[in-house]
Specification:
77% of the residues lie in helices and 0% in strands. It has 121 residues and is mainly α. The protein is extended.
Length: 121
């Protein structure tokens, strides 16, 4: 079997292990968010799940944590990672407002939301 094929197969195997772990780790928290109240702590827990899944994947594959590439990389791409999502959001909201699909929030719903936030605090 060519080396390139086995390397690609190993890579996909690692990706599927990681995705399976992410799904397994986040599922209870997603369930809790949908069915339990309040769910703020579950959102924080979900944010940790990809990191935990990455470390577990490394352990399963027999790799060391130090084998991960911990440097920042090319700053060009880091800058674009901030600019592109902002552009998506700006374009989307401008089109929604110009085409009349949405409008600015009215005072009454904002007051109701304020009461809900005060209840959570």
């Amino acid at each position: 079997m060519p080396e390139r094929f086995t390397e690609g197969k190993s890579t996909w195997n690692t990706i599927f292990i990681f995705l399976g772990l992410v799904i397994a780790l986040t599922s209870p928290f997603h369930y809790a968010i949908v069915n339990l109240y309040p769910s703020r702590i579950c959102v924080g827990a979900i944010m940790w799940c990809p990191a935990i899944a990455a470390f577990l994947t490394l352990k399963i594959k027999g790799r060391k944590i130090s084998s991960l590439n911990w440097n920042w990389g090319n700053w060009k791409y880091i800058r674009w990672s901030y600019v592109v999502p902002a552009l998506y959001g700006i374009i989307t909201y401008v089109l929604i407002w110009i085409l009349g699909f949405g409008n600015l929030a009215k005072a009454k719903p904002l007051q109701n939301g304020e009461k809900n936030l005060a209840y959570l605090a």
